[in-house]
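[agent] plan:
  1. take the single chain provided in the ticket
  2. run structure prediction with default settings
  3. attach structure tokens to the ticket
  4. add a short note for the reviewer (M.T.)
[agent] executing step 1
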Amino acid sequence: MPVNPYWVSVIQQDNEIYLTDKFPIKLLEIKTPLGNVKNSSASFEGSDGEIVYPPTYDPFELQMEFRFKSVDNYDFHLLVGELKSLLCQETPYFVRHEKLPARKYAVNTCDIELTRKASNLADLTLTFNCFKGFSESLYTSTVPFEYSEEAWGIGLNLPEGDNLQYVFSDEAIFNIYNPSDMRINPRFHPLSIALTCDSVTGQNVRIYNRTNGTLFELKKTIKKADVLLLDGVYPYLNDARCGIDTNHGLITLERGWNRVQIINATNTTIAFDFPFYYR
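[agent] step 2 finished; step 3 output follows
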């Protein structure tokens, strides 16, 4: 946990570093754009109006302003070098801040701007490029829902008074809530669905989202000891690819409530694991 209540952190290789504790900086302001939508329509000569496509969003900049105060001029240059080494990485990492502590931002670059006010004093601006075009929840759906600042805090669109579940046992039909600002599509977003069950003799096990009509079907008999895993676009049966034995279907989750059904199976346990996404 951070010492400074007004904190900013980076998460690199599962290691979280609080910049406001590690460096002598004071957070002044956080700026994010209000919208970064791409043009999602097209018009053609000789036709009326426009053809409208589902909206997509550009990367955006997450800008943070600090006051930087070191012990002296030598300490100033030493700390600036450490800051550059930490933030200018070759691989993407996550940034998090105390205004929305339950969200994190995937970034791939950081521009560092320093305006010297004295030999040991400067205004510091960090501009992170959020290349995905959205933020995401700090944890995924199968982490127990405890309404704490660190896990499932404010700003995640979680409905009040509802006991959200993402693991179900011996339920043929159940409801899953997607609090994201967008549809969860395993072609573009991490989504894992793990199922163990006994298939009904002579029938193919199916996972069916009744809300949007998406269907996955396994054309193979399985027993409770088997594990069927839909990991993004790839299905696995006991850790071996099994796409040839499926209908090549994908389960997507709409925003809000989704009514999901498991067909032709008994003794079922199913888990849906995915982050939540926010514009």
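[agent] step 4 note for reviewer: The mean pLDDT is 92.
[agent] ticket updated
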